[in-house]
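F.,

This is the one I mentioned.
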């Protein structure tokens, strides 16, 4: 698939939205909140932010229904910027693609913004845990081999690759070691952003910037047992400088709807 190439400009504002967990009904519930109404609150901020793109990083549905995806498609249909997406463990890829067949949704999983290459990875597997098998590893390595030596790369994925110290680690990226090897071998890879954990955090590990996106639905406490908490919907605002040598080359801010 061809990459989506953005027009040249000084910087790019992207919004990352994750873990919407919608059900078929607009007033339906998930963990004692109405996830679509949460997304509506967030969407008002999305429009005012005037982003250059939106990236949805998985678990968009809770009940695996076409209607849940259609709610997202209808809500986002008036955006003028492209909307990219990748699957989480709860997602049905065929239904997602069916609902997101028209603009502003874009099926490209590679974005070029100035010096930056953003790679949207599919980590969905047969269980709730992350799955990034040898074929997917090879595809990523082939993609990286096509980039210039002075390029800058940021990876987006649904599953986390470093333990959080909570129940969510039961569903961590099972092939995390292989991903870490790929990142360690390629200094062009600056960072890794994900959803899945319903928890906002950032830290540097093995020279890689890790950033976890809060959920638009409910947040999870970092506890041994499953404890969802109803709060305002969260997302991340990213600013990528077209010049990846700039300081800072990339900034992010945790936001609430």
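My design for it:
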């Amino acid at each position: 698939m061809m990459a989506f190439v953005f027009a040249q400009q000084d910087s790019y504002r992207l919004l990352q939205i994750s873990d919407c967990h919608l059900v078929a009904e607009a007033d339906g519930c998930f963990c004692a909140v109405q996830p679509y109404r949460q997304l509506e609150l967030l969407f008002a901020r999305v429009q005012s932010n005037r982003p250059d793109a939106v990236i949805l990083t998985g678990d968009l549905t809770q009940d695996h229904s076409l209607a849940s995806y259609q709610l997202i498609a209808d809500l986002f249909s008036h955006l003028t910027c492209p909307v990219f997406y990748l699957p989480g463990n709860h997602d049905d890829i065929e239904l997602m693609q069916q609902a997101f067949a028209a603009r502003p949704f874009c099926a490209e999983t590679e974005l070029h913004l100035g010096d930056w290459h953003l790679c949207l990875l599919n980590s969905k597997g047969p269980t709730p845990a992350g799955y990034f098998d040898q074929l997917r590893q090879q595809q990523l390595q082939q993609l990286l081999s096509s980039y210039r030596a002075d390029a800058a790369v940021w990876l987006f994925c649904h599953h986390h690759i470093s333990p959080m110290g909570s129940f969510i680690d039961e569903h961590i990226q099972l092939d995390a070691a292989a991903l870490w090897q790929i990142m360690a071998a390629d200094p062009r890879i600056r960072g890794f952003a994900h959803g899945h954990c319903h928890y906002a955090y950032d830290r540097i590990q093995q020279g890689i910037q890790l950033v976890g996106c809060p959920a638009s639905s409910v947040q999870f406490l970092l506890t041994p047992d499953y404890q969802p908490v109803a709060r305002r919907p969260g997302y991340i605002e990213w600013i990528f400088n077209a010049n990846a040598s700039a300081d800072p080359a990339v900034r992010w801010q945790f936001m609430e709807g």
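The first strand starts at residue 4 and ends at 5.

Talk soon.
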